[in-house]
Design goal:
Length: about 180
């Protein structure tokens, strides 16, 4: 079951979900629009390695915007902190942004119950595209869960700004358990 716009508003006001800052103007019939935060992260290595941290560089989007280039993966973030201990959030790009050729969430639209923070966005344009901090870039929907809830306690909890992959930590933990 998906939350309607009025129920998203009610849940944000009564604490069943957290959206900060919250704006009634960003509520849709069954989702909430999220905006692009001011920071982008790019990987700088020619080959990325799943077993090690990868080098990155940070870009602050200036008022004139930032032109995203095809063939690059940009890690952005939501301006809003979003999370819930009750509902399952799913984040997707807005159709108007997709119609400009920007993929917003490539493989990871589902959030965990109990995650609270800014969401990292995986941005990939198919042609050069200028983006701006504060633009409405995605929408989050909230679904009712069934069964016992085990809250998220993972490595990205309380994320602020774009978070590069920490997959290498999983590999390190597996190695430690195996030895």
């Amino acid at each position: 079951m998906i939350l309607t716009g009025p129920e998203i508003t009610a849940a944000a006001h009564d604490g069943r979900l957290r959206i900060a800052p919250f704006s009634a103007e960003q509520v849709n019939p069954n989702s909430y629009n999220v905006r692009l935060g001011p920071t982008l992260v790019l990987y700088t290595a020619d080959v990325l390695d799943t077993h090690r941290p990868n080098p990155t560089r940070e870009i602050t989007i200036n008022p004139e915007g930032e032109v995203l280039q095809p063939g690059e993966l940009y890690l952005g973030h939501t301006l809003e902190e979003v999370g819930s201990d009750t509902f399952v959030p799913l984040l997707f790009g807005r159709s108007s942004v997709g119609r400009l050729g920007l993929f917003v969430e490539i493989t990871a639209p589902i959030g965990d119950i109990g995650f609270h923070g800014q969401w990292t966005l995986m941005l990939t344009p198919i042609r050069p595209l200028r983006v701006y901090a504060g633009m409405r870039i995605g929408q989050i929907m909230f679904f009712v869960s069934a069964g016992a809830i085990d809250l998220y306690r993972g490595k990205y909890q309380a994320a602020a700004g774009p978070q590069p992959s920490a997959y290498w930590r999983d590999i390190a933990q597996l190695r430690a358990v195996a030895s």
